[in-house]
Each structure stands twice: as C-alpha cells, then as structure tokens.
Amino acid sequence: MNKKIIISIIATIIISFFTINKVFSKEKQKNINKQINIEDKFNFLGNINKKINYFKEDYLDRYISYKKRNKSLSNSDVVLHVNIGIDQNFYTNIKEAPKAGTNYVLVNKFYYLNKDYIPNNLEEIDNNYSVPGKKLVNTAKISFEFLAKKAKEEGLTIRAISTYRSYDYQSNLYNKYIKEDGVEKADKYSARPGFSEHQTGFAVDVDNKITNYNNFDTTKEYKWMLENAHKYGFILRYPKGKEHITGYMYEPWHYRYVGVNIATFIKQNNLTYEEYYFKYFDK
Ligand SMILES: [Zn+2]
Questions:
Q1: Cβ contact 73:87 at 8 Å
Q2: What is the CATH number that goes with domain 97-281?
Q3: Which pTM value belongs to this model?
C-alpha cells in the first residue's frame, strides 16, 4: 500500500478519536450540570423526593412553582396537589379517565369519559328507593338498595333522584345551565359533558322525598348518610372545604360508590377521592 494513503488513514482515525471524545465530554459536562440543577431543586423542596413515595421527578418544576405560590403548604401537600393537577386551571391538560369501567374510576375536571362511553351492567334501582327508571352499575345498585333498605328500617327515606347520565344528557343539561348562568357560574355546579361522574354509573344524587335535595344537609337522612354511607361503599364526593381540590361546590346530595374498604379509609382519614387516588393508586 502507498505510504501516503496509510498516513492519511491513521491521521483520520486520530482526528476522529479526538472529535468524538470532545463531543462526549461536552455531553458529560451537560449531564453533570443538569444533575447539579436537579439537586438544587430537590434541596429547595427539602429533598422531598426521598421522603414522599408519590413524588414524580417529571413534575419537579411544577412542584417548585406551586410551592413558591403556596408557601404555607407542606411539601407533601405540594406534591399531592400538583399530582392531582390543581396547580393548573380546571379543564386544562385533560386526559382520559383512568380505571374506567371499575368502581375505582376517576372522573373530574381533568379526567373525562368519551362521548360514546356507556358502562356495562347498568341496572334499574328498586322503585322503593328511587324515582322510576334510574340506573347504576349493578355492584353500586345492589349496595345502594342495601343502604336505602337499612335506612328505611330506621325510619328514614333515602331516594335516588339522579344516577347514570349519558354524555348527551349531560351535554343538554350543561348547555341549558350556561344559557341561564354563563360558563363561569355553570362550571361551579355542573360538569361539562364527558366530565360528569354520573356518566360512570357509580354516582348517585339523593333526597328524602320531602326536602329539596339542595337542602339535604338539613335532614336526618344526611346525618345518617355521614355516619353510614361508607359501610355500603359510598362516599360524600364533594365535601365542604375541599372545593379547591374537587373543583365542585359542596354537594350534600351527591354520593359515589368506591367499595367498602376505600370508602371506609376515605371517611376515617377525611380525604377526597382525588387525594386518595393520587396518594395510593397513582405511583
Ligand atoms: Zn350528582
């Protein structure tokens, strides 16, 4: 082989080696800088990543920004609130509802069901405990009937007045409300279509047949529900004082079937379903 060619090959190899090395070391430095940056952020939040098992590194910048805006909140609440999504406006960054079709499904102002979603196993509630024709998913339906039966034995009346609602039904309802009250006000008391828990088939609004459901919390039946609903797997879904988390005003009439174990835990720990979900399900 020609000497010149050999020399030029060797020279190319040497030059390539240095070039590649340079690129790699630049990349390495970049990674080190990034690491230092992340560590600073962790330090700012008191190294919460090591203490909170539902911490998500992807949300680090959101945690910091939310903490700066809410200095009095504990770090664990900062992480929880951001995971729930309430560092953002309701109805932004929306996603399809997780665990649809099960009694664990999460539907709120960030998680929706599709237009064509209809739950399986919808069954009509016994008319003794419901206005006629109201349906829930069968597990919730059976539990609700047990609950209402037990209440009746104690001389109380708990009646389902609104249960499963289709996407189209919710759409008509919401559009009626925004015509009457405007979007901002309607959003406070009504879900947008797809975002209503009633579409899951696991939510039920109740009254006592006499008092308007709006005043359900003035009744003996409400008191009974607060003490007993969890034994049948139901939770008060939109409690007082948690409006910033659920996105809904206090609704003493709206209950959600989640199963006995979760309902009991939620009641004992004074949680909303959002708080429960993002602490224990979403890791
Ligand atoms: Zn409701």
A1: no
A2: 3.30.1380.10
A3: 0.84
